[in-house]
Amino acid sequence: MSDQINPFTYVRTRRRTISLFAMVGGAVLDFMAAAGECGRLLGAVWRAMRSGHLRHDIMITQLYHLGFLSLPVVVVTGMSMGMVLAVQTYGTLHRFGADVMCGPMITYSMVSQIGPSMTALLVAGRAGSNIAAELGTMKVTEQIDALRVMGTDPVSYLVAPRVFAITVLMPVLGALAAIVGVYAGAWLCIDVWHVDAGGYWAQARKFMHPWDTLMGLAKCPFFGCIIGLIACRQGMKTLGGATGVGESCTRAVVQSSLMVLVLNFLLTLISNELWHLLFD
User: Fold this and answer.
1) Fewer C-beta neighbours within 10 Å, C or N terminus of the chain?
2) How is 104-124 classified by DSSP, letter by letter?
3) What is the DSSP string of 13-61?
4) Three-class secondary structure of residue 77 per DSSP
5) What is the dihedral angle through the alpha carbons of 149, 150, 151, 156, rounded to the nearest 10 degrees?
6) 226, containing H or E segment
7) What is the pTM of this model?
8) 183 falls in which pLDDT band (50, 70, 90)?
9) Quick count: other Cβ atoms within 10 Å of Cβ 166?
Protein backbone atom coordinates (compact mmCIF):
# COMPACT_ATOMS: atom_id res chain seq x y z
CA MET A 1 0.00 0.00 0.00
CA SER A 2 2.91 2.39 0.71
CA ASP A 3 4.03 2.17 -2.94
CA GLN A 4 0.67 3.36 -4.27
CA ILE A 5 0.42 6.93 -5.55
CA ASN A 6 -2.14 9.15 -3.92
CA PRO A 7 -4.45 10.33 -6.76
CA PHE A 8 -5.39 13.46 -4.80
CA THR A 9 -1.87 14.85 -4.33
CA TYR A 10 -2.62 17.63 -6.83
CA VAL A 11 -5.05 19.15 -4.32
CA ARG A 12 -2.22 19.85 -1.88
CA THR A 13 -0.08 21.38 -4.64
CA ARG A 14 -2.97 23.58 -5.76
CA ARG A 15 -3.49 24.84 -2.22
CA ARG A 16 0.19 25.68 -1.93
CA THR A 17 0.06 27.56 -5.23
CA ILE A 18 -2.98 29.53 -4.11
CA SER A 19 -1.34 30.40 -0.79
CA LEU A 20 1.82 31.54 -2.63
CA PHE A 21 -0.20 33.82 -4.92
CA ALA A 22 -2.10 35.13 -1.90
CA MET A 23 1.15 35.88 -0.10
CA VAL A 24 2.64 37.69 -3.11
CA GLY A 25 -0.58 39.60 -3.72
CA GLY A 26 -0.79 40.58 -0.07
CA ALA A 27 2.80 41.81 -0.13
CA VAL A 28 2.09 43.90 -3.24
CA LEU A 29 -1.02 45.42 -1.69
CA ASP A 30 0.84 46.16 1.56
CA PHE A 31 3.61 47.86 -0.42
CA MET A 32 1.13 49.99 -2.35
CA ALA A 33 -0.65 50.97 0.86
CA ALA A 34 2.65 51.87 2.53
CA ALA A 35 3.70 53.89 -0.53
CA GLY A 36 0.40 55.76 -0.43
CA GLU A 37 0.77 56.51 3.28
CA CYS A 38 4.34 57.74 2.78
CA GLY A 39 3.15 59.91 -0.09
CA ARG A 40 0.44 61.49 2.05
CA LEU A 41 2.93 61.98 4.87
CA LEU A 42 5.37 63.65 2.47
CA GLY A 43 2.59 65.99 1.31
CA ALA A 44 1.77 66.88 4.91
CA VAL A 45 5.46 67.53 5.66
CA TRP A 46 5.74 69.75 2.59
CA ARG A 47 2.66 71.76 3.64
CA ALA A 48 4.06 72.15 7.15
CA MET A 49 7.37 73.41 5.79
CA ARG A 50 5.69 75.87 3.43
CA SER A 51 3.45 77.22 6.17
CA GLY A 52 6.51 78.03 8.32
CA HIS A 53 5.20 76.20 11.39
CA LEU A 54 8.44 74.31 12.03
CA ARG A 55 9.90 74.76 15.51
CA HIS A 56 13.53 75.89 15.18
CA ASP A 57 14.51 74.52 18.58
CA ILE A 58 13.23 71.07 17.62
CA MET A 59 15.02 71.35 14.27
CA ILE A 60 18.36 72.12 15.94
CA THR A 61 17.88 69.26 18.38
CA GLN A 62 17.19 66.83 15.53
CA LEU A 63 20.20 68.08 13.57
CA TYR A 64 22.35 67.36 16.60
CA HIS A 65 20.92 63.92 17.37
CA LEU A 66 20.63 62.67 13.79
CA GLY A 67 23.73 64.35 12.36
CA PHE A 68 26.42 65.20 14.86
CA LEU A 69 26.04 62.02 16.89
CA SER A 70 26.29 59.96 13.69
CA LEU A 71 29.69 61.40 12.73
CA PRO A 72 31.87 58.77 14.49
CA VAL A 73 30.01 55.88 12.85
CA VAL A 74 30.14 57.56 9.42
CA VAL A 75 33.86 58.33 9.67
CA VAL A 76 34.79 54.83 10.79
CA THR A 77 32.63 53.27 8.09
CA GLY A 78 34.06 55.49 5.35
CA MET A 79 37.60 54.73 6.45
CA SER A 80 37.04 50.98 6.59
CA MET A 81 35.29 50.92 3.19
CA GLY A 82 38.09 52.90 1.57
CA MET A 83 40.74 50.61 2.98
CA VAL A 84 38.83 47.48 1.98
CA LEU A 85 38.54 48.84 -1.56
CA ALA A 86 42.27 49.56 -1.56
CA VAL A 87 43.07 45.99 -0.51
CA GLN A 88 40.83 44.52 -3.18
CA THR A 89 41.85 46.80 -6.06
CA TYR A 90 45.56 46.73 -5.29
CA GLY A 91 45.58 42.94 -4.95
CA THR A 92 44.02 42.63 -8.42
CA LEU A 93 45.73 45.45 -10.34
CA HIS A 94 49.21 44.79 -8.93
CA ARG A 95 49.30 41.51 -10.87
CA PHE A 96 49.03 43.45 -14.13
CA GLY A 97 51.39 46.26 -13.19
CA ALA A 98 48.54 48.79 -13.08
CA ASP A 99 48.95 49.95 -9.50
CA VAL A 100 48.19 53.60 -10.31
CA MET A 101 44.72 52.60 -11.52
CA CYS A 102 43.78 52.03 -7.89
CA GLY A 103 43.17 55.79 -7.77
CA PRO A 104 40.18 56.00 -10.10
CA MET A 105 38.77 52.68 -8.88
CA ILE A 106 38.72 53.72 -5.22
CA THR A 107 37.68 57.30 -5.88
CA TYR A 108 34.83 56.46 -8.24
CA SER A 109 33.48 53.67 -6.04
CA MET A 110 33.53 55.74 -2.87
CA VAL A 111 32.12 58.94 -4.37
CA SER A 112 29.39 57.56 -6.60
CA GLN A 113 28.24 54.37 -4.86
CA ILE A 114 29.70 53.18 -1.58
CA GLY A 115 29.88 56.52 0.24
CA PRO A 116 26.22 57.51 -0.26
CA SER A 117 24.68 54.03 0.00
CA MET A 118 26.67 52.78 3.01
CA THR A 119 26.06 56.06 4.83
CA ALA A 120 22.34 55.77 4.13
CA LEU A 121 22.25 52.21 5.48
CA LEU A 122 24.04 53.31 8.65
CA VAL A 123 21.73 56.27 9.09
CA ALA A 124 18.75 53.97 8.57
CA GLY A 125 20.04 51.74 11.35
CA ARG A 126 20.96 54.48 13.77
CA ALA A 127 18.73 57.47 13.10
CA GLY A 128 15.80 55.52 11.63
CA SER A 129 15.49 53.30 14.68
CA ASN A 130 15.84 56.35 16.94
CA ILE A 131 12.99 58.16 15.18
CA ALA A 132 10.72 55.10 15.16
CA ALA A 133 11.38 54.37 18.84
CA GLU A 134 10.83 57.98 19.93
CA LEU A 135 7.60 58.48 18.01
CA GLY A 136 6.42 54.96 18.84
CA THR A 137 6.87 55.60 22.55
CA MET A 138 4.96 58.86 22.23
CA LYS A 139 2.20 57.02 20.37
CA VAL A 140 1.69 54.21 22.88
CA THR A 141 1.82 56.65 25.82
CA GLU A 142 -0.84 58.80 24.09
CA GLN A 143 1.38 61.89 23.89
CA ILE A 144 0.54 62.29 20.20
CA ASP A 145 -3.17 62.18 21.01
CA ALA A 146 -2.54 64.85 23.65
CA LEU A 147 -0.94 67.07 21.01
CA ARG A 148 -4.04 66.74 18.84
CA VAL A 149 -6.29 67.60 21.80
CA MET A 150 -4.23 70.77 22.39
CA GLY A 151 -4.67 71.75 18.74
CA THR A 152 -1.09 70.97 17.66
CA ASP A 153 -0.51 69.16 14.39
CA PRO A 154 1.74 66.13 15.13
CA VAL A 155 3.12 66.18 11.58
CA SER A 156 4.37 69.77 11.76
CA TYR A 157 5.54 69.38 15.37
CA LEU A 158 7.13 65.91 15.26
CA VAL A 159 7.45 64.52 11.74
CA ALA A 160 8.46 67.51 9.61
CA PRO A 161 11.53 68.52 11.69
CA ARG A 162 12.86 64.97 11.64
CA VAL A 163 12.30 64.41 7.92
CA PHE A 164 13.80 67.80 7.07
CA ALA A 165 16.82 67.28 9.33
CA ILE A 166 17.70 63.83 8.00
CA THR A 167 17.17 64.96 4.39
CA VAL A 168 19.49 67.94 4.82
CA LEU A 169 22.14 66.00 6.72
CA MET A 170 22.46 63.04 4.36
CA PRO A 171 24.51 64.87 1.68
CA VAL A 172 26.90 66.13 4.36
CA LEU A 173 27.34 62.69 5.91
CA GLY A 174 27.63 61.00 2.50
CA ALA A 175 30.27 63.48 1.33
CA LEU A 176 32.21 63.04 4.58
CA ALA A 177 32.19 59.25 4.27
CA ALA A 178 33.34 59.47 0.64
CA ILE A 179 36.18 61.87 1.42
CA VAL A 180 37.42 59.82 4.37
CA GLY A 181 37.23 56.63 2.30
CA VAL A 182 39.13 58.16 -0.64
CA TYR A 183 41.99 59.41 1.52
CA ALA A 184 42.10 56.23 3.63
CA GLY A 185 42.46 54.14 0.48
CA ALA A 186 45.05 56.56 -0.91
CA TRP A 187 47.08 56.37 2.30
CA LEU A 188 47.11 52.60 2.18
CA CYS A 189 48.16 52.49 -1.48
CA ILE A 190 50.71 55.31 -1.46
CA ASP A 191 52.27 55.19 2.01
CA VAL A 192 52.06 51.46 2.72
CA TRP A 193 52.38 49.82 -0.69
CA HIS A 194 54.41 52.67 -2.27
CA VAL A 195 52.22 53.26 -5.30
CA ASP A 196 53.41 56.32 -7.22
CA ALA A 197 51.50 59.26 -5.71
CA GLY A 198 51.61 61.42 -8.85
CA GLY A 199 50.30 58.64 -11.08
CA TYR A 200 47.68 57.66 -8.49
CA TRP A 201 46.10 61.11 -8.26
CA ALA A 202 46.60 61.89 -11.96
CA GLN A 203 44.64 58.80 -12.97
CA ALA A 204 41.99 59.58 -10.38
CA ARG A 205 41.51 63.09 -11.82
CA LYS A 206 41.56 61.75 -15.37
CA PHE A 207 38.77 59.20 -14.94
CA MET A 208 36.61 61.08 -12.41
CA HIS A 209 34.07 63.40 -14.01
CA PRO A 210 32.26 66.11 -11.99
CA TRP A 211 29.04 64.40 -13.03
CA ASP A 212 29.98 61.35 -10.94
CA THR A 213 30.45 63.50 -7.84
CA LEU A 214 27.23 65.41 -8.50
CA MET A 215 25.17 62.26 -8.97
CA GLY A 216 26.69 60.62 -5.91
CA LEU A 217 25.71 63.56 -3.72
CA ALA A 218 22.33 63.96 -5.44
CA LYS A 219 21.28 60.52 -4.23
CA CYS A 220 21.71 61.44 -0.58
CA PRO A 221 18.65 63.69 -0.11
CA PHE A 222 16.43 61.00 -1.60
CA PHE A 223 17.91 58.44 0.79
CA GLY A 224 17.42 60.75 3.76
CA CYS A 225 13.84 61.60 2.81
CA ILE A 226 12.77 57.98 2.38
CA ILE A 227 14.45 56.94 5.65
CA GLY A 228 12.73 59.75 7.54
CA LEU A 229 9.31 59.06 6.05
CA ILE A 230 9.43 55.33 6.70
CA ALA A 231 10.72 55.75 10.26
CA CYS A 232 8.11 58.40 11.09
CA ARG A 233 5.31 56.34 9.54
CA GLN A 234 6.25 53.28 11.57
CA GLY A 235 6.52 55.33 14.75
CA MET A 236 3.18 57.08 14.24
CA LYS A 237 1.30 53.80 13.71
CA THR A 238 2.83 51.92 16.65
CA LEU A 239 0.47 49.77 18.73
CA GLY A 240 0.90 47.34 21.58
CA GLY A 241 3.13 48.94 24.20
CA ALA A 242 6.84 48.18 24.50
CA THR A 243 6.59 45.18 22.19
CA GLY A 244 4.99 47.32 19.51
CA VAL A 245 7.77 49.91 19.82
CA GLY A 246 10.38 47.23 19.24
CA GLU A 247 8.50 45.88 16.23
CA SER A 248 8.16 49.38 14.78
CA CYS A 249 11.92 49.94 15.13
CA THR A 250 12.65 46.65 13.39
CA ARG A 251 10.26 47.37 10.53
CA ALA A 252 11.59 50.90 10.14
CA VAL A 253 15.20 49.74 9.82
CA VAL A 254 14.44 46.82 7.50
CA GLN A 255 12.07 48.71 5.21
CA SER A 256 14.23 51.83 4.96
CA SER A 257 17.37 49.77 4.28
CA LEU A 258 15.62 47.83 1.50
CA MET A 259 14.25 51.02 -0.01
CA VAL A 260 17.72 52.60 0.06
CA LEU A 261 19.10 49.68 -1.94
CA VAL A 262 16.24 49.76 -4.45
CA LEU A 263 16.42 53.54 -4.75
CA ASN A 264 20.18 53.41 -5.23
CA PHE A 265 19.72 51.09 -8.20
CA LEU A 266 17.02 53.25 -9.76
CA LEU A 267 18.91 56.51 -9.28
CA THR A 268 22.11 54.98 -10.67
CA LEU A 269 20.19 53.79 -13.71
CA ILE A 270 18.68 57.25 -14.21
CA SER A 271 22.05 58.99 -13.80
CA ASN A 272 23.65 56.71 -16.39
CA GLU A 273 20.85 57.42 -18.86
CA LEU A 274 21.22 61.15 -18.26
CA TRP A 275 24.98 60.83 -18.82
CA HIS A 276 24.43 59.21 -22.20
CA LEU A 277 21.82 61.81 -23.07
CA LEU A 278 23.92 64.84 -22.09
CA PHE A 279 27.52 63.87 -22.79
CA ASP A 280 27.52 61.15 -25.48
Assistant:
1) N
2) HHHHHHIIIIIHHHHHHHHHI
3) HHHHHHHHHHHHHHHHHHHHHHHHHHHHHHHHHHHHHHHT---HHHHHH
4) helix
5) -100
6) helix 210-236
7) 0.86
8) very high
9) 31
